Amino acid sequence: MSVASTDALAVVRAIGGIGAEGGDLRARYLSPPDAKKNFVIACRVGDERFVLKVYRQSLRYTLQVLKNPLSRHFSRAFTIRSLAATRVRAELDGIAGFSLAGLRTFEVVARPRRTALLFRHEAGEPLRDVLLREDDTALSRRWVERVAGDLSRRQSLACERDDLRMIHPAPRLQHAWVLPGDELLYYDFEDRVNPALRVREAAAMELENFFFYLLRCPATADAGTIDVARGAVGADALERWTSHAERRRSALSGSARRRKDVLAAVLGG
What are the mean pLDDT values of the chain's consecutive 10-residue runs (269 residues total)? Predict the structure, then answer.
């Protein structure tokens, strides 16, 4: 069955038949259904495989949305938590931005309802899982160099075009997906980059978070791997980061101690 003839609503209806085999359509949960968070369903329609992501609303998100005015105008927080339908729009914006930067993302096949997206499935696994399983320092450094290089080129283009969509709100290694043949794609853009930020400022904060996540992952936390990442992101990206770091003084904009620790680990100062 081709994508053109796929009935996206039929995939949504498959939620009621999770775990059952029959006909052309089979589906299973990748994450459990929960009224408090998103859930993800893998589906097979004929010979094609899809992933349905249903965005849920919770009290946690609602409370975070109420803090947005403070985040936008005083704390200059990097990400903005949003209601379910807004997170769908943020996901689509991120996919568009990364595609403009020449990077692969999961293909959106349909938006079967306001708070759900249907993606074409790509065989593979998160990069973080690969690195933790292989436990190979040389492999980790090669992959980190590649991801950091993608980030550097993407940020340069974002600054040139003044396009916040090219900034990833959560630049973790588990949001890089390794395909057969060692191709990479990027995913999970549902948290919005704060629209009150200038692009250079958002890029600086993304880079800080990128290094923070590298330092938290056992496979990438060693000094040699951090050196590789620092070299790959380049002098321009590092200058953006350090020049904006001192401007983030509000306690609501993130931990000043964390920022100091990350700067010291990466730059040695």
Answer: 41 45 45 62 78 77 61 59 82 96 94 87 90 92 96 97 94 92 92 86 92 92 94 94 66 58 78
DSSP β-bridge partners for residue 51: 42, 119
Segments forming the whole domain that contains residue 253: 125-267
Using only the alpha carbons of the chain, give its radius of gyration.
19
Residue 248 lies in a domain: yes
Q: Tokens representing 210?
A: 């990128």
Give the model's pLDDT for residue 127.
93
CB 77 within 8 A of CB 92: no
Count how many domains the chain has. Answer: 1
Residue 78 lies in a domain: no
pLDDT at 82: 66
Q: Is residue 202 part of a domain?
A: yes
Number of H helices and E strands in the chain, helices first, is 9, 11
Residue 146's Cβ-count burial label (10 Å; 0-12, 13-18, 19+) is middle
| Both tokens assigned to 228 | 């590789």
Pick left, alpha or beta for residue 268 (phi over 0 → left; psi -120 to 50 → alpha; otherwise beta). Answer: left
Q: Whole-angstrom Cα distance, residue 249 to residue 103?
A: 33
In this prediction, residue 253 carries a pLDDT of 46
- What are the strands of the beta sheet with 116-120, ordered from one edge? 25-29, 39-45, 48-54, 116-120, 108-113
**DSSP state letter for 27:** E
Tell me what pLDDT residue 5 has.
34
Q: Which two tokens stand for residue 62?
A: 């609602």
Domain for residue 108, yes or no? no
Please count the other Cβ atoms lying within 10 Å of the Cβ belonging to residue 65: 16
pTM of the model: 0.81
Max CA pair span of the chain: 62
